[in-house]
Amino acid sequence: MVLAGTAVMALSACEDDKVDAQAFPDLQSCLAASEKDGLWFTADDCRTQFAAAEKEHLETAPRYESRELCEQEHGAGACGADPAQSGAQQQQGGGFSFMPLLVGYMMGSMLSRGGGVFSQPMVRTPGGFSTPSGNQTFASNTGAGRVPATTFNRAPATIGKAPMTRTQVSQRGGFGAGATARTGTGGRSFGG
Prior knowledge:
By secondary structure, the protein is of the alpha+beta class. It is 35% helix and 20% strand.
C-alpha cells in the first residue's frame, strides 16, 4: 500500500514538471488560434512571444562553417547565411557562418507557476523539429501538448562565437545528439 502511494506521488511530481505548450509554424497561425475560446494565450502573447523567439533564434541557433554542413544537420534548403555577421567580419578573416532557418516557435504556459507565457524558437532537424539547444525534438512544428518546463530553458548563446566545424559536429554525433543523449527527451511528438 505504501509503495502504491509512493508511485502515485512520484507520477504526480513528474506531471507537475510539465507545462501546457503549443507550437506554431508562423505568427499568423498563432494569431488564428488565439481567436478561439478557452485558450491560455492572446494575440498579444503571440506577437510578443514570436518576437522573443526570433531574437532568441538569432542569439542561440547553432552556427556552422559551411552551408553544406548546416544542411547535413538540418536538411536541404533549411539553412541560410548568418544575419548577425557583417561584411566587415568577413573582410577581417572572420569567415562566414550558416545557421538553420526559424521554422516556427513554441509557447508554453507557466501561469500555474506564476510565470506567464514563454517561447522557444524551432528549427528543422533530421528527426523533425527542435529547440535551439537540440535537447527537445518534436515530430511537428504545429500542435499542442504538455512538455517538461525545462523545454523553455534558454540555450547557450552562439552569436559572435566561432561556427562549428565538421570535426566538432562529428565528435558530438550531430546536432543535439549530446544533449538528447544526456536528457533522454528526444522524440517527443506534438499532435495537431
